[in-house]
Amino acid sequence: MKILLLEDDIILSDLLKEYLESHSYAVFQSFEGEEANELLYNQKFDLLLFDINVPEINGLEIFEKFRDIGFTTPIIFMTASTNFQEFEEAYRIGANDFLRKPFNLEELKIRIEYIEKTILMNSIKLIKIGKKMSFDLPNMCLIRNNIKITLSKKEAEIIKYFLLNKNRIISVEELIINIWEYAKDPSISTIRTYIKNIRKNLNNLSTIKGLGYILKI
Q1: What distance in Å separates the CA atoms of residue 180 and residue 57, rounded to the nearest whole number?
Q2: What is the rounded (10 degree) CA torsion for 94, 118, 176, 78?
């Protein structure tokens, strides 16, 4: 799991990074809002771990801007503040969890594992798509009748995103925001090509004219 950690307290940030990396998480540190904002535009993360009160732009403002354009990466907010309005605002804009400082490192690990299991499905090996088709999450490939179907990296990422958001209409813009890095936006025709290739194996991926695509399971 790739985590973006926004924490302006260098000692705490280093402690969190060391602890999480000891449990096999890849942690990218940021100490101020603008830096975190830039990282979000240029890289893709599996989880955000954000302090709220940081220099330049606070964590709530950064996340709200990205959520408003269709960003779905899960987030855990942290704060030492006792201001209930911050807690309320965090959940209003789509926070997945909230930690009051100081907190136990083991508690943080448990909360991350819960997000992995319930939102990112990282504890699942095979996802059933149809009677004869499954998606192998660890190997990012399709399996039909026990035969492995090799996919390109982006095709596999797109299928995984549809599975994370099954039975919901996904716009082209949402796909781009959540799968491609900001500086590498694909053309609409590129997206259509990927969808066309995916449909060769998934006939339950439908186009909703003018809105996007939906994987019905």
Answers
A1: 24
A2: 40
Distance CA 84, CA 215 (A): 39
What's the full length of the chain, in residues? Answer: 217
Residues with Cβ within 8 Å of 34's Cβ and at least 6 positions away in sequence, in order, are: 56, 57
What does the alpha-carbon distance between residue 70 and residue 96 come to, in Å, rounded to a whole number? 15
Other residues' Cβ atoms within 10 Å of the Cβ of residue 71: 17
Rounded to two decimals, the pTM is 0.78
The mean predicted confidence, pLDDT, of the chain is 91
Task: Evaluate whether 50 touches 93 at the Cβ level (below 8 Å).
Answer: no
46, 50, 54, 58 alpha-carbon torsion, rounded to 10°: 80
Rounded average pLDDT over 110-126: 86
